[in-house]
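Feature request disguised as a bug report, sorry. It would help if multi-protein outputs had a clear separator. Right now it looks like this:
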Amino acid sequence: MNSGRMVLSRLRSDLDEGRFTRVLARCERLLASGRRHPVLWSYRGRALEGLRRDSEALAIYREASLRFPGHAQSRLLLGKLCARLGRHEEAHCSLEQALQLDPELIDGYRTLLNYRAIAPDDTAVRHILARARSKNHGAAARARALFILGQIHVEAGLDQQGFEYYRNANELVSSTLGNGSHEYLVANNTQSINAGLLQEFDRSAPALPVAPRFSLPGCRARERALPKHCWHAMPG
């Protein structure tokens, strides 16, 4: 591994462990020294988000998208942050651009579904299904892809196929959680998706009169691991 990759690997590790101040300082020093790499801009923005400096992160992602117009990850991060901040038109546009640049950014489809439906015969589904079947990705990444496929098919009225995707996703999730109880924390800045938001965009399914919340932001909850199921052949 060359020195540049080692630096990025350390920064990624620090981000994953929540050392946002360290990552921010390191990225700013590297950029000030003349390093020109879009990932440094992305990590700088993510560190700012981790420090809850969202307006600064937004400016970084916007500048990175202008400096590196072919870097899909910068546009994905911009889209996801805009969605969280309620800047929905910019979010939708940025997500579409990111996925045009790199249709394998699976997390982009998850956020894009807040703004428009994806047809089951869309080429995007092939990329999502490939991730779900990939042996090069962990169980969590594959489960996320399966949950997205489930939502796509249920919204298209294909409930049986959609529920089978959900079943397969739950099986993967249960295999990673084990049999004990697990605690999770919903972030205070979690974006609420409600009927008013959904009605702003042209989607195939009508918005519900009352959209259920996952949990109150900032509140802890405990849940049992999902029940184990037999693995079913994935539809398609």
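(second protein starts here, but nothing in the output says so)
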Amino acid sequence: MRKWVYGAVALVLAGLFWYSTGNVGKNDHEAAYKELSKVREKLEKAGTARVDFTASLTGGKPFGEWQGTSVVRFTEPSWDTSYTRMAGTGTDGITARRVHVGNADYYTSTDLIAPDGRPWWDASRTAQVWGDQLSNPQLNVADITTWLPFFGGLDVYLADSAKQSDHKYRLECMSGRSVCPPPFGTRLDDHFDQTSPPILTAQLDDDGRLVKLDVECVLTNSDKVEPGDVSLRPKATYYVKASFELSGFGDDAQIQAPADAEITASNRVVPKGRS
């Protein structure tokens, strides 16, 4: 009788151990999914953040490099960016400020000038000379909002596979997911129509907010060219690298378009000293 009781107790304890470890594993998988799938929601809840960035698009000439700081509002995204350095073929060290409100982008720079002398211009109405087509900030390589949509469309398996350690993930954005490129939805699509899966390495804080994001991917072109397309289509392989560090969550941010009187009516702006 005593042996039977001991055996029954042992069987019950083994069952409890199996049940608890099985549920811990399941909960671990679900925890990764819940944390990673809420990256954008957490940022929108925070409202705003300071984003320090460096980014590059390289593979030969032309090329693009950007460095600076953005103040980003994540709900109905808008941002105020100070580029401390932009470089491309023929230019090195251009500084500029960009304000994105709604669907409009406004720029001002002490290195570029409009014939009428007004300090701001609307990128949709005024041509800008940044050095070359691949150093254009409108490619949005250096904008964190370009990459945040790639956290969408996850499932438990993908999130669990992406986990590297507590609050750190390495996520490949495969083209089978509807949120993954191509297209990117930026001016990058004017120049490249093929990409490797973008790789996002994300570090979250204990509250699940994104505090660091590294991005890398490879861009190429097919031989397909639409009739009348005059965009630069590099034959070389190009590499995107971007790094973002987020801080100052919830800080007050007044992001507004410049006054109409400050926006140039000229059809172009050029580097100072060049007509």
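Even a blank line would do. Unrelated, but nice: The chain has a mean pLDDT of 87.
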